[in-house]
Design brief:
alpha+beta, about 35% helix, 2 strands, 1 helix, two-stranded antiparallel ribbon
């Protein structure tokens, strides 16, 4: 995913991808039901916004897959 803000003709400087997880500031808050949830806090003015968005998306997808896998396993349905 690429997000362009500002001049479309600006020179893009690409950083080498760092190995491992990108640290994301997060907050633990309670939802309306009282359960704890993690909110990832992104700085829209940061140079690493694209990498931060990608990491937040990756973590959300991983969580959704874990929840779905557990739900299907509890029902006795084999996941492919």
């Amino acid at each position: 995913m690429k997000i362009a803000i500002g001049d479309p003709n600006a020179t893009v400087v690409r950083r080498a991808r760092e190995k491992g997880r990108v640290p994301l500031p997060s907050k633990r808050v309670r939802n309306a039901g009282g359960k704890l949830e993690t909110l990832y806090v992104l700085d829209v003015n940061a140079e690493t916004l694209s990498a931060d968005l990608h990491e937040a998306f990756r973590r959300n997808v991983a969580r959704a897959r874990r929840v779905n896998r557990a739900a299907f396993k509890a029902q006795g349905i084999a996941a492919e």
